[in-house]
Amino acid sequence: MKIPKHSLINRGTALWFSLFDTPSNNQTMVPRILPIQPLFQRRQFLNRAIKERREVFVQLMPVHTDGQIINVRGPLSQLHAGQYVIQTGNLSYFFKLAQLRYIAG
């Protein structure tokens, strides 16, 4: 019976590739869908976050039916009555209160 010998280089190479192995493109990350908060609670949290200039976490519903729910974290500000913007990195998300599912501070 022959016992295969694994060299240190082979083990190191396998470990190196396993560390930087990227997941396949067919495995898309689906955000955890949170419950829709009551309207009065969303309004109250929005007003408080804007007034205190806090960074918030929001979950937004898609504008169209072919879109997907997205999670965003960043500073929140109000553009016009009923229109809001949240900025994260180089992206800005514009939304209305009807698109807001969940907000947390």
Description:
Strands 4-3-2-1-5 form a 5-stranded antiparallel beta sheet, covered by helices on one side. The protein has a single domain (26-104), classed as Roll (SH3 type barrels). The chain has 2 helices and 5 strands, in the order ααβββββ. Strand 2 (70-80) and strand 3 form a beta hairpin. It has helices spanning 8-19, 39-52; strands at 55-60, 70-80, 83-88, 91-96, 100-104. The longest helix has 14 residues, at 39-52. Helices cover 25% and strands 32% of the residues. It is α+β, with helices and mostly antiparallel strands and 105 residues long. The model has no long low-confidence stretch (mean pLDDT 81).
What form results from the Cα inertia axes?
A: elongated
The total of helices stands at 2
Assembly of the depicted chains: single chain
Class in CATH? Answer: Mainly Beta
> Secondary-structure element order, as H and E?
HHEEEEE
Which structural class should the secondary elements be placed in? alpha+beta
Number of domains: 1
User: Kindly state the mean pLDDT as a whole number?
Assistant: 81
Largest sheet: 5 strands, antiparallel
Helicity level: 10-25%
Distance between the termini: 63 Å
Q: Ranges with pLDDT <50 over ≥5 residues?
A: none
